[in-house]
Specification:
The protein is an alpha/beta fold. The chain has helices spanning 7-17, 40-53, 76-92, 94-97, 152-159, 181-190, 206-209, 215-224, 226-233, 247-253, 309-322, 337-343, 356-369, 378-385, 408-423, 427-448, and strands at residues 29-33, 67-73, 100-103, 107-110, 114-120, 130-131, 134-137, 170-174, 199-203, 241-243, 269-274, 283-291, 294-303, 327-330, 348-351, 372-373, 388-391, 397-400. It starts with 6 loop residues before the first helix and ends with a helix.
């Protein structure tokens, strides 16, 4: 924070940042990427204490306004770790203790008008604050937020304006994960000499930052799960994990303002369901049809848990009847009660020949080419863009939601896209019909001339 570096510190700076020149002043963003047990959370807690207690923010805070230093993480429990390190400093150091006005389980209020707070990593909850700095802890894992409507991109986009008037730093710290999300983008764009001068990225393994970490701990972890340990301790980005489909591609498929399409006798509809016992997962269904090159989503429903599976199945069948459907397809691994529950309402439940990953991979070309037409649903977009694609040991692609994530609605929609595409004419057939129509048009023109 403005102190000159000695030769040893400068060598360490160059090794960890890939840069041979120091910033001209405080940077806008500090990105600390290191392995587990490297001490990054302790360091960030200490830095937060310095920023909150030993820096004067009075010239950038309006009268009656309090500056906030939020600690954000994937969960409240994770955010509390860095917060506790800061709290320990205000508890154990007498000079800092005198600065404390009040404390609660989630807030340290200082007499200088600054509050250190644990805040949920949610773009809605951080709007309106004036932040003197902000800590984004373990942000590589934010993309799997269980609400499926709160991506890391939106959180940081809402947070950055809160730092404009104070010019305080955004501090991102995390171990690595897959090559996706805001942490990966910050590393890809800004690590090394060619990066943005206002974004300083520090990168290294667990032992690069913490030489006291026993090597045998790392060796055992690598032996148990090589891929996970290499990312967690050696800071090797995982090549076996990637985003399934880019956000921009999915958003481009959405027909804004269209939430459901009415029944049309000229269309051949199909339906796909993702049933649930109603305890933890949502019960979802989607209806769609093929129209030329495009596969169109007409209706979808998500019944969130907890819900009664019998009542939900009845509601699904009522929706199917609106589109004159007496058959619904679904996961072949569905419980035995599913088929009988549908049959009681005169609907046949048929198992899809594709497994979950194959369903997603079948829908992917339509999403990438813009040939899928989706309904306007932020939740659907987020579930699709939160999916991960990884390669199994057998070489097969596996597509699934992230840890603590949800994909029930996306699974039903992907299923109906794949089903409608298969039920409709092939691209070759469509092209043949279009060519035939063009030939007829040309013959008609020649006959007139």
């Amino acid at each position: 924070m403005g102190e000159p570096l000695n030769d040893e510190e400068m060598a360490l700076y160059e090794a960890r940042t890939g840069r041979d020149t120091l910033p001209d002043g405080p940077v806008e963003e500090l990105v600390c990427i290191s392995g587990r047990r490297s001490g990054k959370t302790t360091a960030v807690g200490t830095l937060s204490t310095y920023l909150a207690a030993l820096c004067d923010w009075s010239d950038v805070l309006s009268r009656g306004d309090r500056g906030v230093l939020p600690f954000l993480a994937q969960s409240q429990r994770t955010a509390k770790i860095a917060f506790r390190h800061a709290n320990a400093a205000f508890t154990d150091i007498k000079a800092l203790k005198r600065l404390v006005e009040n404390t609660t389980a989630e807030t340290i209020s200082l007499k200088n008008g600054v509050d250190l707070e644990i805040r949920p990593a949610n773009f809605r909850s951080i709007r309106g604050i004036t932040a003197i700095a902000a800590v984004a802890d373990e942000c590589a894992f934010w993309f799997s937020d269980e609400t499926s409507s709160n991506p890391d991109r939106e959180i940081l986009a809402a947070l950055r304006p809160a730092l404009i008037t104070t010019r305080g730093p955004l501090i991102m710290c995390s171990s690595v994960y897959g090559k996706k999300g805001e942490l990966w983008e910050a590393y890809r764009r800004n690590y090394g000499a060619d990066g943005d001068p206002q974004v300083l990225v520090s990168f290294g393994s667990s032992k690069d930052f913490n030489e006291t970490l026993p090597q045998k701990v790392i060796d055992k972890a690598v032996e148990r799960d090589p891929d996970a340990a290499k990312s967690e301790y050696l800071s090797i980005w995982r090549d076996d994990i990637a985003s399934f489909v880019p956000y921009e591609r999915v958003r481009a498929c959405v027909e804004a303002g269209t939430y459901e399409r009415p029944f049309d006798y000229s269309h051949r509809y199909v339906a796909f369901a993702d049933p649930s016992g109603g305890v933890s997962d949502s019960y979802c269904v989607a209806i769609g049809h093929k129209e030329g090159h495009r596969t169109i989503l007409d209706a979808m429903r998500e019944f969130r848990a907890p819900c009664d599976p019998e009542d939900t199945t009845r509601a699904v069948c009522q929706l199917l009847s609106q589109y004159r459907l007496t058959t619904v397809f679904g996961d072949k691994y569905a419980a035995e009660w599913v088929s009988s529950a549908y049959s009681r309402h005169g609907v046949s439940y048929r198992h899809s020949e594709l497994n979950r990953s194959e369903i997603y991979l079948s829908a992917l070309p339509m999403l990438m080419a813009g040939e899928a037409v989706l309904l306007d649903s932020d939740r659907l977009v987020q579930q699709f863009t939160s999916l991960e694609r990884r390669t199994s040991s057998s070489g097969r692609d596996i597509v699934d939601h992230t840890r603590n994530g949800r994909d029930d609605l996306a699974n039903a929609v992907a299923g109906v896209l794949a089903l409608a595409d298969e039920a409709g004419p092939s691209r070759e057939q469509i092209q043949k019909l279009e060519n035939l129509a063009e030939e007829r048009r040309e013959r008609l023109i020649r006959s007139i001339v």
